[in-house]
Design goal:
The structure holds 2 protein chains of 2 kinds.
Chain A: H1 3-7, E1 16-27, E2 30-41, E3 45-49, H2 56-63, E4 71-76, E5 79-80, H3 86-93, E6 96-99, H4 111-121, H5 126-139, H6 155-167, E7 173-177, H7 185-202, E8 205-209, H8 213-221, E9 222-225, E10 230-233, E11 243-249, E12 252-258, H9 259-263, H10 268-274
Parallel strand pairs in A: 3-8, 3-11, 6-7, 7-8
Antiparallel strand pairs in A: 1-2, 1-4, 4-5, 9-10, 11-12
Helix pairs in contact in A: 4-5, 4-6, 5-6, 6-7
Chain B: H1 6-29, H2 38-48, H3 53-77, H4 84-122, H5 125-131, H6 136-173, H7 179-188, H8 192-218, H9 223-257
Helix pairs in contact in B: 1-6, 2-6, 3-4, 3-6, 4-6, 4-7, 4-8, 4-9, 6-7, 6-8, 8-9
Classes of the chains: A alpha/beta, B mainly alpha.
Chain lengths: ~280, ~260
């Protein structure tokens, strides 16, 4: 892929926070990712589409250093992580938030302890922890669930707690792994609205894996109105310039571009995929 | 279902030993690195130590009583029933106390660790911990290793004591020995090497219980069925390893002390 294609229309000066270069990864002699290259810029949200088994979740785990590539390089916040020692990765991961597919909340801890986990590890004073946890839970509109355990929450509430846990330290990058998977349409819209809110209020860079096309298109066509406290359609160009799309097929990137470019694509597979 | 080739099975086993050794080494290495999870250590000590008290007391008491009964039938043939206390104390302190307590703890703690960590593994909680910038080996395994080693030491001493008490009850109520006859014979022949042997074994066994339980938990695959499999494997592997290591430690210490 050319350098121009990698920048995806962003100005050269725009800081790259995450970069994959010719990344390959295989399991049991089966290649899951084949030469994947793309860049994520500061403040940008990239929506990852692809059928099941195309390597989307694996790509997120690579970005976080939970898996190591067989070939290629991955640069996160200016640091090459493919061969970084695990102890150094722990430091770097504190600047990245991750929302897992099934939330991955610690089931023996309360909501408060889950959200506060990172702050507790950093020995932040207790009164400050309580304040920040309440603030993060207020962001996802769950401040009344402090004392509850994950098992007492619905699927949608668990995802929102996972988002609160990911954003509590205001990370520079957030990785969302199918945040709306298995949820009803109304709850899904609530989750997408929270992701848009995080993108527009805090300008956080994000990589979002999803099966649901409508989630991606909502991300591209809506922005968060702080005055109204809700998401509203983008007025002028019709699409949000901070949102781009990446499509994986059989472990390869077959599309990396804006919503307009996606809609105008002449590729038969892409046309069928988005139809 | 595909059958594995013999060389694949061997490779798997060698890889498992390598992974276990690395994990155990890392758990020990973490003792010298910050942060240290003192509250987690205390919580585990409570679960492993205090939680295991009833089972250790009951097994120690009954094994001591049975030992007194069994040995007395042989000793009666030689008219040496008064040596019952000595045989009970030798057996309990050198061998049965630490080994039996360890096997009990393997059944309770190693399986508990394998199932708890295994559940965390299959629900991505271990990955979530790594994603949140926390070393799961440091946070989950090292505290369990420290707690098990320390608590097993004290539980073994308690088990020895309860075994002697069990033997005493039988000796006085069934064999017609006096209190002073029994207790004098229990400690009269005991020497430093005997006590040392009984006290050093729990350190090795505790390490085996915790590292094997945690290893199987961390290597769990395949959902709830995998958790069940890991739990069983942890129990079996820990028990077998304890018995094998017991033989070698005993041989080594007999070689050093001559008894």
């Amino acid at each position: 892929m050319t350098d121009a294609a990698l920048t995806n229309g962003h100005p050269a000066a725009s800081e790259v926070v995450l970069e994959f270069k010719d990344v390959e990864l295989g399991f049991d002699q089966h290649l899951v990712l084949r030469g994947v290259s793309f860049r994520l810029h500061r403040g940008e949200t990239k929506v990852l589409f692809g059928v099941a088994g195309s390597g989307k979740s694996v790509l997120l785990k690579l970005a976080l250093g939970l898996l190591r590539p067989d070939a290629g390089t991955i640069t996160v916040l200016g640091q090459e992580i493919s061969s970084m020692p695990e102890q150094d990765l722990f430091e770097l991961r504190r600047k990245i938030g991750m929302v897992f597919q099934e939330s991955a909340l610690f089931d023996s801890m309360t909501v408060e302890e889950n959200v506060a986990f990172r702050l507790t590890e950093e020995h932040v004073p207790a009164e400050q922890i309580r304040e920040r946890v309440t603030e993060a839970l207020r962001f996802v509109e769950l401040e009344h669930t402090l004392e509850k355990f994950p098992a007492q929450l619905s699927g949608g509430m668990r995802r929102r707690v996972a988002i609160a846990r990911a954003i509590i330290t205001q990370p520079e990058i957030i990785l969302y792994d199918s945040p709306t998977g298995g949820l009803d349409p109304i709850t899904s819209t609530t989750i997408v609205e929270l992701i848009i809110k995080q993108r527009d209020v805090y300008q956080t860079s994000a990589l979002m894996v999803t099966h649901r096309l409508q989630d991606g298109f909502t991300m591209a066509t809506h922005c968060f109105d702080k005055r109204k406290g809700q998401m509203v359609p983008v007025k002028e160009s019709g699409t949000n310039t901070n949102t781009s799309f990446l499509i994986l097929r059989d472990g390869k990137v077959i599309f990396d571009g804006t919503g307009h470019e996606l809609a105008a694509s002449t590729d038969e597979y892409i046309k069928e995929y988005i139809s | 279902m595909r059958l594995n080739l013999p060389e694949e099975i061997v490779k798997e086993k060698v890889l498992a030993v390598q992974e276990y050794s690395l994990l155990a080494g890392e758990a020990v290495g973490n003792l010298f690195r910050r942060p240290r999870y003192v509250s987690d250590i205390l919580m585990q000590a409570d679960f492993i130590g205090v939680g295991s008290l009833p089972i250790v007391v009951l097994t120690g008491l009954s094994i001591g009583a049975v030992l007194a009964l069994q040995t007395s039938t042989t000793l009666q043939q030689f008219g040496s029933v008064s040596l019952t206390g000595q045989l009970v104390s030798f057996s309990m302190i050198k061998e049965i106390g630490p080994v039996l307590t360890s096997l009990m703890l393997a059944g309770r703690a190693a399986t508990g660790m394998a199932s708890e960590l295994g559940s965390m593994k299959v629900t991505e909680q271990i990955d979530a911990m790594r994603a949140l910038g926390t070393d799961p080996v440091k946070k989950l395994i090292t505290p369990r290793v420290v707690s098990t080693v320390v608590m097993l030491f004290f539980l073994s001493i308690l088990s020895d004591l309860m075994g002697l008490v069990g033997g005493y009850i039988v000796a006085v109520s069934r064999l017609g020995l006096t209190t002073s006859q029994y207790w004098t014979s229990t400690y009269q022949q005991l020497q430093f090497p005997d006590v040392f042997q009984g006290l050093c074994k729990p350190f090795f066994f505790g390490f085996i219980i915790a590292t094997v339980g945690c290893y199987y938990g961390f290597s769990t695959k395949g959902g709830t069925q995998g958790v069940g499999r890991s739990t069983t494997q942890a129990m079996v592997a820990a028990s077998v390893l304890i018995l094998i290591v017991d033989f070698f430690i005993t041989q080594l210490l007999i070689g050093i002390f001559g008894r």
